[in-house]
Specification:
10-stranded mixed sheet, binds manganese (II) ion, alpha/beta, two-stranded antiparallel ribbon, binds 3-isopropylmalic acid, Isopropylmalate Dehydrogenase
Amino acid sequence: MKEAGYEVAIFPGDGTGPEVVREGVKILGTLAEGGPAPWRATEYPGGGQYFLRTGREWEPESEAAARRADAILLGAVGWPGAMLANGDIAGRALVLGLRESLDLFANVRPCRLYPGVQHRISGQYREVWAPKNVDMVIVRENTEDLYTPARGRLRRADETEVAVDTRIITRKGAERVIRYAFELARARLRGAPEDGVRRVTCVDKSNVMEGCRFFRETFDRVAADYPEIERDYAYVDAFTQWLVRNPEHYNVVVATNMMGDIITDLAAVLQGGMGFASGGNIGAEHAMFEPVHGSAPKYAGKNQVNPFATFFAVEQLLRWLGDRHHDHRLVGQADRLERSIGAVLADGRARTYDQGGTVSTSGAGDLVAAAIRGERR
Ligand code: IPM
Ligand code: MN
């Protein structure tokens, strides 16, 4: 427990990022009403739009603040036309850059369908999967694989002949993310919806790729330390169909970086869409939490997008901080936030446009804030 309080660095970023982050900050404020807040939240500019204005992605002070902070909340980065000289998106420093420099090795994406949330399929809103059947966490390696800068082009006479990305799987990278997944399966209250079994599924392409063979070997080696947790395996292609057909089988899933990137967006459909998908980028010393939907330039400034992903990111942040510092105040707030979100979603009164509703971003924030206040009384 940190008596002096925790520093939370907030990067609203681009597009709709500031709109959803504003609601996240509102919720943090509501949770702290009636007592001294156990944290200080400070906002810092940065991202693609900032780059277009200033020529810099962010300031050295902001980077130092991210390093110093006890936890980071990120909105979204990326803006049309905001590109660095090397072709990377401006704002990369805030996402991929922090994953690298703070060694945030586990990308943790909870995928849970709350009662009252609909699936948008072919433009229609339906309840396709039963909420009780979708309750998993996908853990994605976050520092290596095809995301390492071992890439480049071979040019001859200014003409690109070959472009190469190198897939790198290391012992350390695989081992620590797999261990994270098993620890998570051990700590989670619930097993898989299908049968209550605590299970970790290793998703890979070890029938073809060497890096995946090594990842699976490492999985087996780590799994030996967790005899009470079931081991499960899926080739990534087959996994995509099983995920949609039998989500109830999955409890904790672990995958390499690029495959994890793809399967987590597919999984977001099961939880009602990207508007509900949050992610934690977690390392040994630092962590950053974000709604994973991106900056959605088309919707920027309209107070229209779904802020629930940000509320779930705030919940993840509070829970991580609370667990790490053995601070029951924060875990209690995370629990309270989760219950309030669940209550607001259950009766469908907070449906934003992506759910076929008309509630605004700030309107959804107000409803969750009211639920938090109501619960306290
Ligand atoms: C994610 C995103 C990022 C990634 C992008 C914004 C670089 O898609 O967090 O899943 O590819 O990891
Ligand atoms: Mn992604």
